[in-house]
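#struct-help
A.M.: can someone run this one for me? Single chain, 342 residues.
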Amino acid sequence: MRPLLIITIIISLISCKKTTKENIPNDVLEADIVIAFGSCNNQNLKNPFWSQIAAQNPDLWIWGGDAIYCDTENMDKMKSCYEIQKKDAAYAAFLKKVPVTGVWDDHDYGLNDGGREYPMKVEVQQIFYDFIGLPKNDSVRKRPGIYRTYDVKKDGVYIKVLLLDTRYFRSSLTPDPNPKRRYLHNPYGEGTMLGESQWQWLENELSTSTADFNVIMSSIQFLSNQHGYESWGNMPHEVARLENILVENKVKNTFILSGDRHIAEISKKEIAGLPYPLIDITSSGMTHSYKAFKGEENPYRVSKVVTDKNYGLLRFDKAKNSVTMEIWSKNDSLKLSYKQEF
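D.P.: on it. Structure tokens below:
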């Protein structure tokens, strides 16, 4: 039986089992560092997860985009939307226990599927930083775009989180005339996902990283590219550029987090010259999900697709040079678990 099929069967067997501390393996419970992440959170809907996530004692929460839904050019309205979320009682209690960072996607940026054409991006950047809690005197605030790093260090273990901005600099996408697909893949090497300044920053951060693990947070999916919505696949040359950076700089122990899609899944790609597979784990959404999902092609998928509301959890083990990637749903239900040994 092929390894990919074996992995899929194992994940499927795990996926529907309600999980408690009593039946999670000790090597998972004893992780060196735990990071939680998620996306697609409508501030006007109930999020059932904050106390559940806090009970798992994460060392960090990462917003993967769409922390609010507020498509607008009115910055008073934008501030109000962020305030609704920040004053939510469950989230406010969560903030007292868990450090928070993250990126934006289109709906907390202000324009559905928006990129560099959004006219209020300079203003909303500061509002987003206020929401995340970035100090007013942080020099990052003076730089266009919200890309930056966040370091997690604990008991001799170092995780570098690279937070990408896939909105501020992104070129316009090409509409697909097929009504079943939203955007075309650009085969001509035109357009940018990150903008040149962010690309140079990213290569420098990865090539000089001394972290035990590098975690790249991209609001949109990197590997899954056949669904016709927004993804890195709309710009294949940009996908190749990131893969080449990893290979040419011999960047170790790196994987990608993503959101946006209102589903959860795990994708994996073998890249020539990279000594480990590149994983993209998607967790989305927290207050609403794609329950009408009827399937779509993803040549890199190594898990089932979770359509329940969900969030992600990462458990790092330095001694085993591994990370266990999990997708959780309501009532402490573990939907997916995938262990990657580097």
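A.M.: thanks! The longest strand covers residues 333-341.
D.P.: also worth noting: Residues 1-23 have pLDDT under 50 and may be disordered.
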